[in-house]
Amino acid sequence: MKALKLFLLFALGGLLAAQSSDILADLGVTRADLRRDVLPNLTEPQWFFFHSTKPMRKLARQLPEGSRATAVRALGKVVRAYCASDEFRQDYLGWLKTQYPYDDKYTDERLAEQEQNLKTLPNAANQAVLMAQQSFASLDPAMLYAGMKMQVPQRERELANLSGDERAEQARELADLKKMLAATEGKPAEFKKQFLAYQTRRMQQAAAGNVAEQGQNLDEARQRNAEYRRQKAFFDAHSDFRPLLRQRLTAFVALCNDVDFKASLMPSGARREFVDPVYQRKPAEWKFLYRLGPEATLAARTFAQEWLTGLEAGQPASKPSAQRQ
Known about the structure:
The chain is an all-alpha fold. A hairpin with a 2-residue loop joins strand 1 and strand 2. It folds into 2 domains: 5-100 and 240-322, no CATH class; 104-236, no CATH class. A two-stranded antiparallel ribbon has the order 1-2. 21% of the residues are buried. The chain has helices at 5-13, 23-27, 31-43, 54-62, 68-83, 86-99, 108-137, 141-159, 164-183, 188-237, 242-258, 277-280, 284-292, 294-312, and strands at residues 265-268, 271-274.
C-alpha cells in the first residue's frame, strides 16, 4: 500500500523536537530539504525513503513518551503549509511537464502571430522591390555598367571558394551578368534597363519562394498546434495536485489503521521477527509505523485525516493562516 512519505518524515522527524519554537531549525531541516523530499513522495511510485542524520536519530531515541504527538503535529503543519505554497506548486508543475511535455513554440498565440506575418509578407516584398527600383533609378547608367563590369573578376575568384547549391546559384547569377554586359556593351542605358528588370525579377522570385516556404511552415505549425493542444490538455487535466494528494492521504490513513501495535516479536538470529507470519509478510512501511509506535503514528494519522477532510470539503491544500514563508 502506498502512503505519503511526508507523514513518515514528520512521524520520524517529529520525535526530535517537542518543545520547539522553530521545529525545522531543531530538526536541522531546511527549505531545500522540504523541496527535496516532499514532492517525490507525492509523485514517485517508490515513496518509502527519507533522509535522517545520526544526531537526529540520537535525539529521537532520547525523546520521552508523551511529547511525540505534539512534535508530529508541529512538523505536519509545516509540511502542509509548504504544500500550499506557490513554491511547491511551481515545483509540481515543473515535474508535471516532464510527465506531460508540450512545446511552447506552437501555442495558439504563436500560431496567430505566424498567420499574421504570412499575410503581411506579399506587401512587404512589394515594398522592398519598389525601394530597390527607386534606388537603381537614380544611378548613372555608365557608372552602373562600369561598376558591374569591375565586379566580374572578383566574383569569379570568390566563386572558386564556394561549393554546392551556393556555388551553383552564384555561378548562374555571374553568367547572367556577363551575358548582359556583353549584349549591352556601349549601351549603358540598355544595360541599366535590363539589369533593373533582372534584379526585380530575382527579388520577386525570392519573395514568392519565401511566401511558399512560410506557408509550408504555417501548415506544419498548425499540425504542431493541434498536437500542442492535445498535450496541453493532458497537462492541464493533471495540473491540480490535490487529487493525487487525496489519494496518498487516504492510503496513509488506511495504512495507519492496519497496523497492529499489539503484535508480538520473537528472536530470529540477530534480528527480531513477528510471531504471526501474516505480520512478517507486511510491507516495509507497515513495519516502519509499527516501530514508530502508536503515539507518533496515530498523531500522524489524525493529522492526515484532518488534512484529507479539508481537501474533501474543497479547501486549499492548507489554510492561509498555516502558511509560512
